[in-house]
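In this notation, each integer encodes one residue's backbone shape. One such record reads:

___
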Amino acid sequence: MKQNYAIIGLGRFGGSICQTLVESGREVLAIDKSEDRANAYMDIATHVVVG
């Protein structure tokens, strides 16, 4: 069974967690209020939202 995660905030800690989860085969919804940070994770996370 595949597990899904949501990361709110793509700063130093959230970005690191996001990358680790994706590398281990998990699906990740990444959410950040900064459009620049969200765009930086477009190719890493499964789904990215600015909010």
Observations:
- The radius of gyration is 10 Å.
